[in-house]
Design goal:
With about 90 residues, this protein is mainly beta. Helices cover about 5% and strands about 55% of the residues.
Length: about 90
Amino acid sequence: RHLRAAAPATDPARSASQPRNCTLSVASFPWSELWIDGRDSGQRTPVVHYAVACGPHTLGLRRPDLKLERSVAVILAPEHELKQHYELDSNYSE
């Protein structure tokens, strides 16, 4: 019978790879679908207290029926909620 040594709970490589939860609240006019890092979150704005991993993300706000889309780079910090409001405008380009 072989015994495996458990990794110590304070292993820095292991703890660095585990994301800390941050929260995000996003509103837009008009309402839009919220995509995070190229993946559909399944949420429509307004989105309140949505849990995501801390760090940099790309938010996509999409209204395919109105041909509106906006992409925004954000950084979520631990113990802070990112609260943003975006205007989707057909004349907007980034």
